[in-house]
Amino acid sequence: MLVTETIHISLASIRSNLFRALLTMLGIIIGVGAVITMVALGTGAQRAIDEQMASLGGDILSIQSSAWFSRGVARNQQTLTTDDAMALAIGSEHVAAIVPEINSRFQIKYGNKNLNLSTIGTTPNYPALHGYELAHGAFFSAADEAARRRVVILGSEIPGMLEVEGAALIGQKVQIRSISFEIIGVFESKGGFGWRNPDDDVWIPLSTAQFRVTGNEFVQTISAQVSESSTIPMAMLEIESVLRREHGILPGKDNDFAIMNRKQFAESRQEATAIFTYLLAGIAGVSLVVGGIGIMNIMLVTVTERTREIGVRKALGATKGNILLQFLVESTILCLLGGLLGLALGASASALLAKYAGWQTVVTSSSAMMAFGFSAAVGMLFGIWPAKRAAQLDPIDALRHE
Hints:
Layout: H1 2-16, H2 18-56, E1 60-65, E2 67-70, E3 73-76, H3 82-91, E4 95-110, E5 113-122, H4 126-130, E6 134-137, H5 142-146, E7 151-154, H6 158-162, H7 166-169, E8 173-176, E9 179-187, E10 201-205, H8 206-214, E11 221-226, H9 232-247, E12 257-261, H10 262-305, H11 307-315, H12 320-357, H13 365-391, H14 395-400
Parallel strand pairs: 5-10, 7-9
Antiparallel strand pairs: 1-11, 1-12, 2-3, 4-5, 4-8, 4-11, 6-9, 7-10, 8-9
């Protein structure tokens, strides 16, 4: 009963000075809103990484030629060939699929449109390994690859660049490095990650790229999918063993290739994103502390203004505990109301950033509860001193106060 009455008295006191109460809560509102927004951005970034890894394939290893250093400058050496890819496909028990790739940038010409795009020479099992789906047409076949046919598949954004519908491009001709290619397919959108956007790439058969376009027998990357019955470390060891044998690398000598685990890269990015999120949330949380100090100052002013009221209550039998509880509840209610408004502000800011800035944001219940709980803790913590000061007032001096 005492707590209920105290809450009613506190709410009446807040309503009597509503504008001042709103100004007092402003620091809490901004603090909670900032924390919610920052955590939503960080959580959205982590979820985006998860989605990207799911689309790229977390069980795919990327094998590349390693770099060597000359006069302090890293220089790439080409060491991987299609023979290496064939050896891995035949001699690996822990690898389910192998896809060699050549990646170069060339001028693509269609009519009066000229685009400088990344051109990937690869094999027919590329879409299955990397999770691509065709929106129009078909991917090239093993027969196309063997015959070195001049066929090309476009990324989903290229029809827009050419100002032509994707379906209408099927069967049309484009020139890659002044060589005519027939468009036989257009991929569905894959979505970019980091600085990389696969939706503006084009794909041609590996043999065509090697013998008709680049004149280079080496491949830059070999993608290897780990078998479901195996593990990434086992596959990495097997790949290393096969390639060292193929390249004739003696024991004790360094590899002339590098095996990269996408899953580890994603986990590192997630850890960095989580640290950055906590840092931003911590900085935003400073405004909560500032808001708490503002509430403490206003509560001290309130104690001075209501000194006579406190004296009357004590004269009527109110104990120090009653007075302490009243002012503590009042400061806590201010922070809780500010927390609720801050939650609404943070959720609205997150939605606006997602809609207009294109950032992925996720407001979770745990972040909302954390920010709301912290605001309540701030109210109680910074309300203790004003409440104790009110409780310790002498009733006679309080009644004499003008």
